[in-house]
Amino acid sequence: MIKILFICHGNICRSTMAEYVMKYLVAREGLSDSFYIDSAAVSREEIGNPPHPGTRRKLKEMGIPCGDHRARQMRREEYEQFDYLIGMDSWNIRNMNRILKNNDPEGKVYKLLDFTERCGEDIADPWYTDNFDATYADVKEGCEALLSECLRKLTSEHKTEAF
Question: The domain containing residue 100 runs over which residues?
Answer without folding.
Answer: 2-162
